[in-house]
Fold this sequence. Notes:
The protein is α+β, with helices and mostly antiparallel strands. It has helices at residues 18-22, 68-74, 80-85, 91-99, 110-118, 125-139, 158-162, 166-170, 177-189, 203-210, 218-228, 239-249, 257-267, 272-286, and strands at 7-12, 31-33, 36-41, 44-50, 55-60. A hairpin with a 2-residue loop joins strand 2 and strand 3. The protein binds a DNA duplex through residues 25-26, 117-118, 120-128, 130-131, 170, 173-178, 180, 214-220, 223, 236-241, 256, 258, 280, 284.
Amino acid sequence: xxxxxxxxxxxxxxxxxxxxxxxxxxxxxxxxxxxxxxxxxxxxxxxxxxxxxxxxxxxxxxxxxxxxxxxxxxxxxxxxxxxxxxxxxxxxxxxxxxxxxxxxxxxxxxxxxxxxxxxxxxxxxxxxxxxxxxxxxxxxxxxxxxxxxxxxxxxxxxxxxxxxxxxxxxxxxxxxxxxxxxxxxxxxxxxxxxxxxxxxxxxxxxxxxxxxxxxxxxxxxxxxxxxxxxxxxxxxxxxxxxxxxxxxxxxxxxxxxxxxxxxxxxxxxxxxxxxxxxxxxxxxxxxxxxxxxxxxxx
DNA sequence: GTCCAGGTGTTCC
DNA sequence: GGAACACATGGA
Length: 298
């Protein structure tokens, strides 16, 4: 660990809601601290804050290079209007878009994203955050933080996880997910799947490859594909989205999950994953389940 | 104490 | 093909 420095930059943005983006269950390592957000990307500690007049202020404690990695992660160059323009014109989605204006889909590291969602099954987001944090604390590498700041760790690599035993992972309170995370890490480490090559496949091919991993079904595959591989049409269907789709589009009926998945694939269009994230975050906002937005009315 | 959580894998019909 | 259940743990 090198000695800490202080590097800063400003991103000019339009329609960017940092809180909605970082606290909408896409990524699990951002903490709200003193009016900003702090996390670790790769091996860099990062602090983000809203600036004035459509600015995001970014700060690191180690040399950031050209900041391209952070622009890409935050998707600050994505045209939000263009994305929203592809959405179907329906009242419920329109309301979610208005309520969460500025919510973006991040572009995360594929391994951290996939591993985090393997740990997500039948867990509340608050617990996922705790488990992921514990995995990093135990098995990640310490990263450079500002002087006097509390410690921070990177997310452990595929190889590090693959070299652990199930019992090591169970110590992070992940329960039965330990064998899934370990099995997936080992499969990737021995070359059964090229995570970085997924983006060059079609959505169907990439999904088909991912669901061969233990503990990875369609929902978790779609999370990884949407949040880290740039597949904007991937549409993760979890319990929140199931409820939402039933309420909005099939009132009084009781469609099976497979029917809703098929409906969503057609209805929400080529960037349906973004629409999904608006529906998901809006539903959680209304239910009072977003800690950073407790004061937002229903 | 009961229900449920950004699911998946297995078993049984 | 699809319903029922197991799987760990802890928040609400």
